[in-house]
Specification:
This is GZF1 protein. GO terms for molecular function: DNA-binding transcription factor activity, RNA polymerase II-specific; RNA polymerase II cis-regulatory region sequence-specific DNA binding; zinc ion binding. This protein has 205 residues and is mainly alpha-helical. It has a domain at 13-136: Potassium Channel Kv1.1, Chain A. It has helices at residues 13-27, 50-56, 58-70, 84-96, 106-115, 119-155, 162-173, 196-204; strands at 33-39, 42-48, 76-80. A 3-stranded mixed beta sheet has the order 2-1-3. A hairpin with a 2-residue loop joins β1 (33-39) and β2 (42-48). The radius of gyration is 44 Å and the shape is flat. The N and C termini lie far apart (144 Å).
Length: 205
């Protein structure tokens, strides 16, 4: 009787493998390649494992495979125009899948990822730059909205001038409009003068 197949999968094994390889590199154990990095006169050498570099970088994979095909025993790789600090961060990333860098170095890490053809680091830098850009745009939007609200509140008058307020109060107390000449007798009605009714009464008599 055949039994059903079951899957044995470890969630921690990849992390443990990376951690163990990282410790071996730091101690210099089982390292089979030396990477010599030089930038503007500053030079440093890093020991590492070919298998780890080849698995994470297409650049190193091509170098090691060509080296093996040619039967060359060379175990030193020279890298020019790569800063020492950047390559140290690159090694830490490929051995641990994480690295902490300053914000102004993110672009340089993206450049070294593209130079060494490390897809994981390239995608990580790209996503981080996108988040940083979105954060800056959000801050600018909040600043713009706060400026607009301050300008609107400054443009609204808080109280009416005293003369206008007095005129409004008087208009509310009296139902009729204010006569500029004083009493209604000074105002002609329908174009007739005040003497017109008296003249008509004399003609009748």
């Amino acid at each position: 009787m055949e039994s059903n197949a079951v899957l044995l999968e470890s969630k921690s094994s990849p992390i443990n493998l990376l951690n163990e390889m990282h410790q071996l590199r730091l101690l210099g154990h089982l390292c089979d390649v030396t990477v010599s990095v030089e930038y503007q006169g500053v030079r440093a050498e890093f020991v590492a494992h070919k298998a780890v570099l080849a698995a994470t970088s297409k650049f190193f994979k091509d170098v090691f495979l060509n080296e093996q095909a040619m039967g060359s025993p060379r175990t030193i790789v020279f890298l020019n125009e790569v800063q020492v600090a950047d390559f140290a961060s690159f090694l830490e990333f490929v051995y641990t899948a994480k690295v902490e860098v300053e914000e102004d170095r993110v672009q340089r890490m993206l450049e070294i990822a593209e130079k060494l053809k490390c897809l994981d680091l390239s995608e990580t830098c790209f996503q981080l730059k996108k988040q940083m850009l979105e954060s800056v745009l959000l801050e600018l939007q909040n600043f713009s909205e706060s400026q607009s609200s301050e300008e609107e509140s400054a443009a609204q008058p808080s109280v009416l001038p005293e003369s206008k307020a007095a005129a409004v109060a008087e208009a509310e107390q009296t139902d009729c409009p204010v006569d500029p000449l004083g009493s209604p007798t000074h105002r002609p009605s329908n174009g007739a003068s005040p003497e017109a009714p008296a003249a008509k009464s004399k003609e009748k008599t």
